[in-house]
Amino acid sequence: MSVTETDSEVRSSPLALAVLSLLHAAPLHPYAMQRLLKEWGKDNVINVGQRANLYKTIKRLLQAGLIAVRQTERDQQYPERTVYELTEAGRLAAHNWLTDMVVRPRNEFPQFPAALSFLMMLMPDEARAALEQRASTLRRQLSAIAATLASLEPTLPRVTLMDDEYVQAMISAELTWIDGVVADLGSGALSWSYEQLADLGAQMAPEHGIEILGPAAD
Fold it and tell me: pTM here?
């Protein structure tokens, strides 16, 4: 099996890239991988909460030949642990996946834009209250990230903290936008009603061959 064939058989994912990246530094067992990702704060950008997902990812990488079993550790205090190491194919895959993820933007379909596309289902005062709650949460997240960066920047090189910088920038931008929308909702510059939306739907329906039915008879 060639390196190219192996690389193409496994779909890249943030968790798979994380496993390969950790093994690039040293052989590890799954528990150590999960612990390191959490200690380094990478669980803010990579879903490592469920160990079952980590084991599934490791199994896929092992079957594809991107990682290999180095040894099995036995200790009276812990269950048997399998230590994995990176193969040459895995080293090449990690480089290719990382480059591709950096180069190519993807539509990842996050929940918030999907919710915004149907915000008209809430009344303006409800939407304003919901957005204010979200803004409060975002401010707490920004404070936590700022504290993390302040504690780590003196000891770690900036390149190891790029994910935190990015998340901080994205949250800041979202918060600025939400604050503007909340202000427009408060001043009345942004408003809507069910009657307006019903009229808009009635105007658009004939274009798509949709028949708008009246209220049901008693």
Answer: 0.80
